[in-house]
Amino acid sequence: MKRIVWFVSVAVVMGVTACGGGKRFGKTPAPPPSQTGTVQGRLVTSGRPVGRFIARIQGARERTELAAQVQSSGFFRITNVPAGPQVLTLEDRERMRGAVIVCLVRPNEINDVGLVETQPLGLLSGIVREVDAEGNSVGPIAGAWVTAQPIEAIGDTLSELPERPYFTDRTNGAGAYSLLLPVGAYLVHVRHPDYEPATDTATVEALIGVSLNFGLQRRPRDASTVFGRVQARVDDQIVPVPGALVALVPRSAEPSPIEIHPDHLTVGQIISSFANPLGSGAHPRPGDGIRPQTRPERLRMRFTFTSADGSYEINDVPPGRYEAFAYKVGFGRDEKEVNVLGNSRIEVNFLLSAHLGKVVGQVTDATNSQPLGEALVFAVRRGDHFFIWDGWQKDDDRPHWHHGGFGVGFGSGGSPGGGASGRPPAGGIIVPPMPPVEPPYRAGTITDPNGHYELILPTGEYFLVATKEGYEWQAAEVTITEGQTVTQDFALYPSSQPPGGDLSQLSVELKVKPEEVPVGETVHLMLEVENQGRRPVTLQFSTPLAADFVISREGQEIWRFSRHTAVILGDASTLVVPPPVTLRPGQKVSFPGTWQQVDDDGNQVPPGEYTAVGILLTRPEIVAREPRRIRITSAED
Questions:
Q1: pLDDT for residue 152
Q2: Measured between alpha carbons, how far is 238 from 613 in angstroms, rounded to an integer?
């Protein structure tokens, strides 16, 4: 393979990942249906599903393309998504919350990313304007592509960027853009076919809006355009490669006094070459060791990043001979020689070979060893802080990690169709979060009728999760190596939740009126139960009472409601249990009780501090979330 020479002092024409997704110019067709799949999952925020979010694949031509509204249950689904490693975001711009997932989409398949928990994000926005040679504003630019890529420092190299998530937007008629981003530093670059590109940096903080405006100058009219698509062979299929680096390096017979390998070209040098005239970001300054240098137009390098469908377009390319190559981490590199003529359009396509691994296995019922078809299996990269790590346990007598369930339901045909209804209890596995520059890879699928599944993943460590409605969640830790296949089977145990539904969907709260009461007066107790899930829940009671209340002082129980309440006998020996109560989603029911300030022996209790606890007497019993304090005052208080 030839060694590629890069020039430190070149000016860089930058494209963006969002240059495709629909119709394009030239001979590059849209991806055929066989190269698309479906992406879906379930969104959770603060322990409850939400429907205010938009699920979006980054790199589409418009924000509304490859996007879907998240349902009130938390379930989302996007169809016709180009295959390949797509960046999926879930966004609530008003509240500045969201999530970022790099989903490995396989053609003609349902790709399920599992549970996604949101985090606080920041908002980067601004205006893109045309500026003249003196830097004066001429007017807004509509249709400019704005891309942000996370960086650790301006010393990061260009070759590191294709491995990271990217975020895109297109300016509206007023030249405005906005990007909802995880906390961190970003290289932001803007381009438009009629203008020279510009770059800048920005730092994003949680729940804070940051403004960054850009100025673009008109490009020469006689320049040429190089366009095409980057694809890769993955498991005997040809799929697009979004987010791949495409570069045109000039070939010249004249030796260059300053040469640099592509792995050494830094973000700081890129910004130095194309500083933003209107920017307020962290530009390299004198003293940083970076000096812009002027070179003939024919010696300038160009590069861009592919869109969601693997397409790219580089404008403002002067005539000459170029070394063209495409590169993405995990997919290798392809190189070509290109001769660019003046004022022309030249198509250059690339084919990469994926350097990935595979995990396969079977999901069965642990009680009878029968295969479980239409079970969900998905892989989460270790440290992905958009996944719920709480509540996973590992016992000596049980295989792998296990979880009683997140209240997630499945729709018809076995496709997951619900949202998590409550945050699981704390405890279990502890996973340090990844830095924002690392991609939170995920891949998921549905088992076939024989319970078999197959997932393709980049190298690394993953948490592999399997579940099916009516079964506990189970997970195993797997390590994926290049070119190797890992076998991981699962034997799922039936869920222990009651037949009336998932009781974890219930909110049980005790209310006390009044909380401060004179000695001798009645204290009113109320146990309020609300179904906060997306499915009906039936309360099936285990005793003649639906609710019980316990009063204690200094940790010692002194009175219990059930010991002083009459019950009904159906006959001489049978207690009458209350009929089941079915709560629709969002519906509430209350169970009252009273305390006359006496202990179990009927004696008046003295003034002081007391604690009340409420218990819902279902099968199993549920204790109210928080105890309540009661203060009994004397006449002297």
A1: 93
A2: 62
- Rounded distance, CA 547 to CA 530, Å? 14
Residue pair 509/535 in contact (Cβ under 8 Å)? The answer is no
Nearest Cα neighbor of 407 from 507, 532, 505 is 505
Q: What is the rounded distance in angstroms from the CA atom of residue 455 to the CA atom of residue 356?
A: 10
Contact, 191 vs 16, CB < 8 A?
Answer: yes
What pairs with residue 340 in β-bridges?
Answer: 320
In angstroms, the CA 115 to CA 610 distance is 41
d(CA 591, CA 576): 17
Helix (H) or strand (E) holding 197: strand 195-204
- In this prediction, residue 637 has a pLDDT band, given cuts at 50, 70 and 90, of low
Which tokens sit at 559? 């009175």
Separation between Cα atoms, residue 180 and residue 114, nearest integer Å: 22
Percent of the chain with pLDDT over 90: 53
Q: Which has the closest alpha carbon to 538: 497, 569, 484, 510?
A: 497
Report yes or no: 341 and 465 within 8 Å, Cβ to Cβ: no
Q: How high is the pLDDT of residue 288?
A: 36
AA identity, residue 415: S
Three-state SS at 345: strand
Helix, strand, coil tally for the chain in percent (to 5): 5, 50, 45
Does residue 503 sit in helix, strand or coil? Answer: helix
